[in-house]
Amino acid sequence: MVARLKAKALRSQQRASNQEAYPSRTPSGFVAGQKRPHVVVPGSSVQPNQRDARQTPSGDKDGFSKPARDSGIEPAKKFQKFVEYDFSKMTDTKGGFLTAEDDPHNRALHTPNQEQKPANMTLKEWEKAQLIKKLKNERAGPYEPGLSALGAAKEQKKCRECDTLEIDWKWDDVFGCQVCKACQDKFPDKYSLLTKTEAREDYLLTDPELKDEQLLPRLEKPNPHKSTWNNMMLYLRYQVEEYAFSDKKWGSPEALDEEFEKRQGEAKRRKEVKFKSKLNDLKRRTRVDAYKRQKAGVEGGNFGDKLWGSKHEHEWGRAVENPETGATVKTCVECGMEVEELEF
């Protein structure tokens, strides 16, 4: 049995060697082609001065070749900036707009002045750094100036209303006003903040006065209506009233009320003068048109009649055949203009 299997293996090897020695032929007698597969073709054998479409490098203008893409299909030029959104991971705002987190590539949602998170910081570290920065600016929390009972009583700053030592240090830096948070809410008629528009319209202050920080200190905050607009300027009410009611400006609240009523009366008078001037101009133009019609001998007609000086529109009569030319002629009833018509 073993000898028979060995003999069978020897015959198979001999038959295979004979097939390699003699090329295979087609039924017509031609030698069949032995084409090598593409994977065995060496790519490094191509000379640099020869062209090979299989290894055409994607060259750049500077001569450097770009790395090969994962896929041979490239997007069209007009779709290269196309952004595909995954709607399953987006926030449903119920308003038809995208949030800044869902659309990070939108420049309209991300202002250029916005401070960005460094690449080497985690989100938690970045939030902590922002909180520390905010506390430093507001002088709150651990950055609030220390309250020591050992210091001199004259050197300690107290609230001007309740004499407490826990004052708002930001107001102290900006407005120079020592007042606590509780008194700010307790006395809104003195410590409420006014916008620039309110200070200009209610107390009749000018723009140069409002821009003078030594005269009227102001607190600047980002505009709540739109981040790209100018910062909002806030003024302390009692400081604005002290300047407006002083001898440098109006002198007293009664004088301010008189000036306000005076300006309101002047505005109303200017509005009435403007209205009367327009009405007189309309009457004058109406009289001129009536005089022109009267001078031209045009009497007043019935409703629907054409006025003198209006645009003329031809009113054609019946078509009459011209016996000399044989053409059909129409004549305007008012001006007598004639036109010929050709009938086919």
From TrEMBL:
Location of the region described as Disordered in the Swiss-Prot/TrEMBL record: 1-75
Keyword Nucleus: yes
Keyword Metal-binding among record annotations: yes
Molecular function GO labels: damaged DNA binding; zinc ion binding
GO biological process: base-excision repair; nucleotide-excision repair involved in interstrand cross-link repair; nucleotide-excision repair, DNA damage recognition; UV-damage excision repair
Regions of compositional bias (Polar residues) in chain numbering: 11-27
A matching Pfam family: XPA_C
SUPFAM superfamilies, sorted: Putative DNA-binding domain (SSF46955)
Gene3D superfamilies according to UniProt: XPA C-terminal domain
Ranges of compositional bias, category Basic and acidic residues: 51-75
Domain of life: Eukaryota
Key words of the record: DNA damage, DNA repair, DNA-binding, Metal-binding, Nucleus, Zinc, Zinc-finger
Location(s) in or outside the cell: Nucleus
GO CC, one annotated term: nucleotide-excision repair factor 1 complex
Domain XPA C-terminal: 190-240
InterPro entries: DNA-bd_dom_put_sf, XPA/RAD14, XPA_C, XPA_sf
NCBIfam families associated with the record: rad14
Protein family: Belongs to the XPA family.
Protein's name according to its UniProt entry: DNA repair protein RAD14
